[in-house]
Amino acid sequence: MRSKITFILLALNLAVFGYLFFIQRDAAASRTIQENRRRILGPEAATIDRIQITLTPAEGAPSAAAPVVASQLTLERRSDRWLLTTPAEWPANEFAVRRMLNELQFLEHETSFPVADLTRNGQTLADYGLDHPRLVLTITPAPSESAAKKGVPAASLTLKIGGDTAVGNRLYLLSPDASIIHVVNRTLFEQFALNEAALRSAQLFTIPVFEARALTLQTSTTAPRTRLRRDQDEWIFEAPFPVTTRAAKDRTELALNSLHSLQVAHFGIADHHPDPAVTGLATPSLRITLEGNARRETIALGLPLDPEAAALPGVKTVEYYARLDERSVIFTVTVPVRLVADLRDAATALRDRRILPFDPSRVTAISLSDAPAREQNLPLRIQKLDSIEAAWRLLTPGADATAPLRADGPYVDHLLQRLSRLEAVRFANDAPTPIELENLGFNRPERTVTIQLSAAPSSSNPTIGAPTSLSLELAIPGGADPSIYARVAGHPSIYALKPDALEYIPVAARIYRDRQLSHLPDSTRITRLVIKPITFPDAKPLLELAIPADRALTDLLSSESPARVAAITALLKSVRDLRAQSIVRENFPATTLVDGVEKPWSYLLEATLEPAPASGPFTIHLAERTGASTQLAGSPSLGLVFNLEQPVLDALWAILYPAKDPAAPATPSAP
User: Is 615 in contact with 520 (CB distance < 8 Å)?
Assistant: First the structure.
């Protein structure tokens, strides 16, 4: 029973497969053949290189008394672009051309009949509007490979479109060999019955930003050219500077985007051919050339269409007379005022204002010096530790190089970020003479910064190169000029900086020292903590706390107020991990400056440690508090005077000035 069912199912499957293979395949082939039979043009429609459109106005047939003038437009493919070559050469509207090509490639007739039958029926081509067709299409396909090698052009095909059918949205078309009249959809006429303006591309620059390779600008026939060239992922100036100069990538590509978005405002001006004195195109005010991959596009801007309106303050855009390449067509284009200004002054507007555009992660060492230190060859050096990521060491002038200090990593990183973003407020001089350099103060620079860089993984800018060392000099000219000037070794350009630029590049070693001054290991215990007045040695200590090893700190402080418990806890934590908000001096004096007056230290904080260090107890001298966030401290063992951090300031306030500490609000008694 099961074998019989299996056999029946197998037979049914074979029958279905046979139907699909033989019947359906033949039906699909039949449909394809039928569609091809309805096609008016053959495979040559897919390789069209030239289309000539002759359009006759609808007034009727020409006569000696009233001749009708037909308009003729010609489209030609050159490389991968279509151009409108007649009546004047201009880039074609690619969207309109694409629709025309699709219409021709898939052009089908609804029905057709031979021209030979017209005579038997007492008709002529005039009955179908084909004696004087209102639209004639002359199509030239690309030649075959063999014909192209022999230089033989391909034969042209002519399609003549006549009148409308009596019923339906159709019209008559005469086949290329004039033997058949086809009835086709009216969309054919609508796609090709376009005027010159509709077939012209309104876009002026077709090279997109990612393809752009160079930008050349010239403000007059005698003015020097400004030329920018893409170099890998950056832009550089090739002219007019004496050496290769960086361009600002963001501003350059913003200008290129603005150029790419420019479109023709009015084409009609081309029909009038205005006087060159009116258009200004005999000597263009700005010539813009954009180069891409093996192609180039140029636009020449003349005078504004309305010079008076263009001169009004606050104007955002101006309409200019313009001409594309060397073509004769004159048109107008509306250009943003800011774009024109940037292009006219591209050597300044598009120039990179960064003075040292380096990658901070590549820095291995920094050398800083002012004028006296440079003269004595005693620079301040900061080096990155190879063994510890993001760690820096400080080599102070005249110090032992075998015992460097730790530098403050976040501050050094911040300095590098500031240097990499240092910008010019003005480009002072690109070819200074020795006398000009001396007048600007470069004979004795106020700051010299040398940056050592590791080798880049891969040079992203081979023309400018990937240097391993950069040297920056900052000078002050003196006199009435408040600017600070800068220059980079190996480049002649002088940059003007903001007057406060020196403040962000200090040379004092204390500023770069690590803010963590000392740290006790976990094995070291604090056995005693004392704070006492120094000026009154016999006075009772403000805090005296013995900390036995067998008692918990909470038990020892159980009788203290919550404010003192918090203060003592914070002070013990600070003794274990002493940090400075800022370092003021790199020596320990007997007196310190308090509110502008030299005064002796007021208090002594002393901590006894176990095991006891060779240097003796941990001691910190304290001055009187002078502000909400200022209280100086000094360490004889470290040889430093520094500002305490805010948590330590708050803790000391509760110990040193308990009478001034605002009391906690009293708990109201129960009713």
Answer: no
313 exposure class (CB count in 10 Å sphere: 0-12, 13-18, 19+):
exposed
Q: Are residues 169 and 235 in the same domain?
A: no
Among residues 172, 199, 226, the one where a domain terminates is 199
666 located within any domain: no
Neighbours of 481 (CB within 10 A): 14
Residues 423 and 497 in one domain: yes
- Please report where in the chains the tokens 């900052």 appear, as a residue: 474
How confident is the model over 143-180, as pLDDT tens digits?
Answer: 877 776 777 778 899 999 999 998 878 999 999 989 99
CA 32 to chain centre: 53
| Domain enclosing residue 141, as ranges | 43-60+69-199
* 581 and 537 in a common domain: yes
Q: How confident is the model at residue 70 (pLDDT cuts 50, 70, 90)?
A: low
Instruction: Quickly count helices (H) and strands (E) in the chain.
Output: 19, 37
Residues 6+ apart with CB under 8 A from 421: 354
Rounded Cα distance between 212 and 296, Å, is: 9
Whether 147 and 273 share a structural domain: no
Q: What is the pTM of this model?
A: 0.72
Residue 669 within a domain = no
Biggest alpha carbon–alpha carbon distance for the chain: 142
Q: What is the mean pLDDT of residues 256-271?
A: 83
pLDDT in tens, 528-572: 999 999 988 788 899 999 988 888 888 888 888 888 999 999 999
Q: Are 542 and 634 in a shared domain? A: yes
Contact 191, 180 (CB under 8 A): no
Distance CA 309, CA 332 (A): 15
Side-chain half-sphere CA neighbours of 510 within 13 A:
14
Closest by Cα among 611, 610, 609, 602 to 631: 602
Determine how β-strand 135-141 pairs with β-strand 157-164.
antiparallel
Q: What total number of domains does the chain contain?
A: 4
What's the CA gap between 233 and 461, in Å, rounded? 8
Q: How far is CA 578 from CA 313, 401, 446, 515, in A?
A: 62, 25, 35, 9
State the Cα–Cα distance between residues 318 and 401, nearest whole angstrom. Answer: 65
- Buried (b) or exposed (e) across 554-569, using 16+ Cβ within 10 A? eeebeeeeebbbbbbe
Tokens 């007034």 -> residue = 59
Residue 99 lies in a domain: yes
Residue 513 burial (C-beta neighbours within 10 Å; 0-12, 13-18, 19+):
buried
* 656 phi/psi in degrees, rounded to 5: -80, -35
Which H/E stretch holds residue 246? Answer: strand 245-246
| Tokens 């941990």 found at | 618
| Encoded tokens for 610 | 């176990």
CATH number at residue 370: 2.60.40
Q: Are residues 48 and 195 in the same domain?
A: yes
- Whether 32 is in a domain gets the answer no
Final residue of a structural domain among 174, 199, 224: 199
Verify that 442 and 313 share a domain, yes or no: no
Q: Which amino acid is at 3?
A: S
Residues 498 and 521 in one domain: no
